[in-house]
């Protein structure tokens, strides 16, 4: 059994974890960063970055439909989801490589594996004992499902929605927050019939829902295969999908 000692041990290498690690190094501390998956966490790999890449593809689709308005003659022939996915993955890979380089350049020690807090100053990672004068917990969170809705098949999470290899014909999104509306915007631009289901009757969410559902995009029935999906927002977001 090996042991490593640091001024600060950060458990979790997502947005909060690596930001804390970088700040601790700036303050002259030695830092051990424990991560069981990939550095960057949800935001980089399953959240902010990939969804923004999708939004950019959606924007290009919208602009191409209206290109004549700008004096540019372009024919819109639809969306190639495989190439959209390749673009999204390339963006994520580039950001991930940059983050790895930054962490290494700052002298932060990355300990790969699942960490378990065993005391106020120690974290166990496999057969390694990681000791820190200070421990930062940045383990992230899990989304919750809704009673009676089992994840799988037609019901998917927002993370699973990112990995769809087809463009659904119809989608019902459970949750009208930022994540739900982002997916609604992307799918609407791709020609999908989208409905947002939101429990809170707030005016701001209502305006966003109406905006997403009334976007000036051609009817989905002519642009996408006869499949349907239901995606939910990420708090935990549950979705129903049918193919």
TrEMBL record:
Residues 211-233 have a biased composition (Low complexity). Keywords: Disulfide bond, FAD, Flavoprotein, NAD, Oxidoreductase, Redox-active center. Residues 234-243 have a biased composition (Basic residues). GO terms for molecular function: dihydrolipoyl dehydrogenase (NADH) activity; flavin adenine dinucleotide binding. Belongs to the class-I pyridine nucleotide-disulfide oxidoreductase family. Residues 203-243 are annotated as: Disordered. Gene3D superfamilies: FAD/NAD(P)-binding domain. The keyword Iron does not apply. It comes from Clavibacter michiganensis. The lineage of its organism: Bacteria, Bacillati, Actinomycetota, Actinomycetes, Micrococcales. This is Dihydrolipoyl dehydrogenase.
């Amino acid at each position: 059994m090996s042991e490593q000692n640091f001024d600060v041990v950060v458990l979790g290498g997502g947005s909060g974890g690596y930001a804390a690690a970088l700040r601790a190094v700036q303050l002259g501390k030695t830092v051990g960063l424990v991560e069981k998956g990939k550095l960057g966490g949800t935001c980089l790999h399953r959240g902010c970055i990939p969804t923004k890449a999708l939004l950019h593809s959606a924007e290009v689709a919208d602009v191409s439909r209206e290109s004549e308005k700008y004096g540019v003659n372009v024919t819109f022939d639809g969306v190639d989801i495989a190439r959209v996915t390749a673009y999204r993955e390339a963006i994520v890979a580039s950001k991930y490589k940059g983050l790895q380089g930054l962490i290494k350049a700052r002298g932060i020690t990355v300990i790969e594996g699942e960490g378990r807090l065993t005391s106020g100053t120690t974290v166990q990672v496999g057969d390694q004992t990681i000791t820190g004068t200070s421990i930062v917990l940045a383990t992230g969170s899990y989304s919750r499902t809704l009673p009676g809705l089992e994840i799988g098949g037609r019901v998917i999470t927002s993370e699973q929605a990112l990995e769809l290899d087809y463009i659904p014909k119809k989608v019902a999104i459970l949750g009208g927050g930022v994540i739900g509306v982002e997916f609604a915007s992307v799918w609407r631009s791709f020609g999908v019939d989208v409905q947002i289901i939101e429990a809170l009757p707030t005016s701001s969410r209502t305006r966003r829902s109406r905006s997403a559902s009334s976007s000036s995009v051609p009817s989905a029935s002519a642009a996408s295969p006869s499949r349907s999906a239901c995606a939910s927002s990420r708090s935990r977001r549950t979705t129903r999908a049918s193919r």
